[in-house]
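Homework-ish question, so no full write-ups if that breaks the rules, but can someone show me the predicted structure for this set?
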Amino acid sequence: NAGVMQNPRHLVRRRGQEARLRCSPMKGHSHVYWYRQLPEEGLKFMVYLQKENIIDESGMPKERFSAEFPKEGPSILRIQQVVRGDSAAYFCASSRRVGANVLTFGAGSRLTVL
Amino acid sequence: DAKTTQPPSMDCAEGRAANLPCNHSTISGNEYVYWYRQIHSQGPQYIIHGLKNNETNEMASLIITEDRKSSTLILPHATLRDTAVYYCIVRVGDNNDMRFGAGTRLTVKP
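A: Not a homework solution, just the prediction itself:
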């Protein structure tokens, strides 16, 4: 029973390029969450998705960032025209349902923008 | 607008109990208290959660005060591998989005 799978684990991009981070939730989980952690800082909530729906994107930057969780396939966090300030660890978590439920986190994707 | 307050850091001797406090004075009646930890730069790991009764599992115990305004996570016999940042979280809203604060950096010393 694989856990939450994130890839790539490490991604290097130059300023202005696009970054795509993928997250496959645990089997049976239909809720996905994305968090960002800047160096030496805490985790910041970005977005919460269910299959084909964005439920809460209050933590997403207004520009350049988007997320999706299609009916088939992994959830994608997309960052367009990356800047150095986007360098961070991006963690994905999944859960089975809403309510008193536990989030299971992946190992994270570390984005470095040169 | 953090809903929880934790000390920034704590030390604990190996083999002793680690007691990590958390204040959540504005908690609502239907909000749970969750504890996670993050070891170095790994993904956060769930530890335990509770509503109003004390809870215990193989990792830790959670003691919630009767008025629910504070709680304590107890690691009964801390090991060096328990060195991590521990996050106390009150679940916000109905969407199950967990908001992490700064947490407590626990250092277990030999």
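Now go work out the reasoning yourself. Hint: The mean pLDDT of chain A is 92.
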